[in-house]
């Protein structure tokens, strides 16, 4: 909530205003986010021919981000970016009301963005513990944002007292509620960024490809840094008197945070588009095995965010395992068969590690097949 002037004397330059800067930042950052969402949908619809739930969730985040940008533009119309002494009390009421809307849209944008990222994790990361952790994080994000939504909707009783000082409030939340909400949001941000890192460490790929994956997923840490900067700006605003003019950093960093988060969620899905635009600069060092040829001939290269490929060989007892160390349920344990009284002959298994080196986002697979043992006495 913005402070109302109490006959303070501000050292001001009436010819200066930050309004143009705020509007330009709101429009530019949202436009960049919209461009990445558009590229994501082009990749998913036209290159991979698959659109999942996380894609529609990120569209919802983009819509709420547009509402937040519109809220900042509305605030500039009522005086945000100008000196407080030159703004009427009537406009300050409207400015504070638009600020309340912006807080609501900000929370919903981050909630949907995190939900989209976690849904993508659940679908592409095949380690059981990672999926369980992603489900727990998703539940935490939803509960945290439900609590934040309740706090914002009940900021004051009656709610109008939040932006109109002429209304005597029965109750208003203290600042501790908002600091707690900010801390929980930042905590989930860091956990979401850290979650895929152990999976990347376990992948057996060339160091350049692994470095690329680290950079893609670590891009989310930039959002965490922006959140910290924004928090410091919020803390600093309490010591400023000319609130509408001096707090330029808050709308700037808020727009950067929410729209960069949307960009981060989209970058993970753009591998096929980058391949299409840049082309392959290196040839594979070995011929792909038949199962890889099938995957490439279908026109759906495996990538972060694409459907997992399924390979079948006629009349062959085989299993494709997307993560090393996991054994598919179809590969039966010989000891268990013996315990059940089933006569089982000794068998040998060949394990072939599959990896398309030209697709750094694909996860190594193991091809397990039975090898006939030589006839014995």
From TrEMBL:
Name its cellular compartments.
Membrane
Tell me the InterPro entries matching this sequence: Rhodopsin_dom_fungi, SAT4-like
Report the family membership: Belongs to the SAT4 family.
Q: How does this protein lie in the membrane?
A: Multi-pass membrane protein
Protein's recorded name: Rhodopsin domain-containing protein
Transmembrane region(s): 20-39, 46-67, 103-122, 134-157, 177-199, 211-237, 249-270
Q: Where is the Rhodopsin domain?
A: 39-275
Q: Which organism is it from?
A: Pleurostoma richardsiae
Q: What is the lineage of its organism?
A: Eukaryota, Fungi, Dikarya, Ascomycota, Pezizomycotina
User: Principal localization?
Assistant: membrane
* Record region (Disordered): 281-302, 357-377
Q: Which GO terms describe its cellular component?
A: membrane
Coiled-coil portions: none
| UniProt xrefs under PANTHER family | INTEGRAL MEMBRANE PROTEIN-RELATED (PTHR33048:SF47), PTH11-LIKE INTEGRAL MEMBRANE PROTEIN (AFU_ORTHOLOGUE AFUA_5G11245) (PTHR33048)
Q: Which UniProt keywords apply?
A: Membrane, Transmembrane, Transmembrane helix
């Amino acid at each position: 909530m913005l402070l109302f002037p109490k006959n303070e004397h501000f050292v001001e330059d009436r010819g200066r205003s930050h309004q143009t800067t705020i509007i330009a930042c709101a429009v530019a950052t949202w436009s960049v986010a919209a461009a990445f969402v558009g590229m994501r949908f082009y990749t998913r619809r036209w290159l991979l021919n698959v659109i999942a739930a996380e894609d529609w969730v990120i569209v919802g985040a983009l819509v709420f981000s547009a509402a937040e940008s519109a809220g900042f533009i509305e605030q500039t119309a009522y005086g945000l970016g100008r000196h407080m002494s030159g703004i009427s009390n009537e406009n300050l009421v409207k400015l504070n009301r638009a600020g309340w809307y912006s807080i609501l849209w900000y929370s919903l944008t981050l909630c949907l963005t995190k939900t989209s990222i976690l849904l993508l994790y659940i679908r592409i990361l095949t380690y059981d513990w990672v999926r369980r952790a992603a489900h727990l994080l998703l539940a935490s994000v939803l509960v945290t944002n439900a609590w934040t939504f309740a706090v914002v909707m009940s900021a004051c009783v009656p709610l109008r007292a939040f932006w109109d000082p002429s209304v005597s409030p029965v109750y208003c939340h203290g600042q501790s509620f908002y600091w707690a909400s900010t801390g929980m949001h930042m905590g989930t941000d860091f956990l979401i960024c850290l979650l895929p890192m152990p999976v990347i460490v376990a992948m057996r790929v060339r160091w350049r490809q692994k470095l690329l994956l680290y950079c893609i997923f670590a891009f989310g840490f930039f959002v965490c840094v922006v959140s910290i900067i924004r928090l410091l700006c919020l803390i600093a605003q309490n010591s400023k008197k000319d609130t509408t003019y001096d707090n330029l950093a808050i709308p700037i960093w808020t727009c950067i945070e929410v729209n960069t988060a949307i960009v981060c969620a989209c970058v993970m899905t753009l591998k096929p588009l980058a391949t299409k635009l840049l082309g392959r600069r290196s040839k594979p060092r070995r011929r792909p095995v038949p199962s890889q040829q099938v995957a490439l001939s279908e026109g759906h290269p495996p990538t972060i965010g694409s459907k997992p490929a399924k390979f079948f060989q006629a009349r062959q007892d085989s299993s494709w395992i997307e993560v090393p160390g996991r054994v598919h349920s179809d590969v039966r344990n010989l000891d268990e068969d013996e315990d059940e009284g089933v006569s089982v002959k000794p068998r040998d298994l060949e394990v072939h590690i599959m990896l398309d080196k030209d697709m750094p986002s694909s996860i190594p697979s193991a091809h397990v097949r039975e090898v006939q043992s030589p006839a014995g006495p």
